[in-house]
Design a protein that fits this description.
Shape: globular
Largest sheet: 8 strands, antiparallel, barrel
Strand order of the largest sheet: 2-3-4-5-6-7-8-9
Helix content: 10-25%
CATH architecture: Beta Barrel
Radius of gyration: 15 Å
Order of helices and strands: HEHEEEEEEEE
CATH class: Mainly Beta
Number of domains: 1
Amino acid sequence: MLRRAILAGVAMLPALAFADDMSDPKTVQLTAGQIDELLRGNTIRGTWNGDPYTQFFDANGQTIYFPEVGRPDPGKWRVNGDTDQYESWWERTNWTGYTIMMTNDGFAWVSRGELQPFEVFEGKQVTW
């Protein structure tokens, strides 16, 4: 339900366009408000450089990252209204900003010019 609402809202953006060749996917950058609505209180599952993970975004600004292999990593998150970016804080990296895109297949982080896809699941789908 949440994903459909976000997709419907973003789909109305005039920036969402397709080239003459419909097989050429286009992406649209989410705004700060859309990012907040997408992540706040929800769980995502995706891959980062090919490694599967699950992450929960608490409404209080805390987050926890669960790699498929390895230990959970607690951090912080926020949305920057000036840059329309998601920002995360991890002990090893401090605050880092990421653009989030809506693609033909769902959502993706932009990291070093590459898309890192993820799916959104409503509510807290993890325990810690």
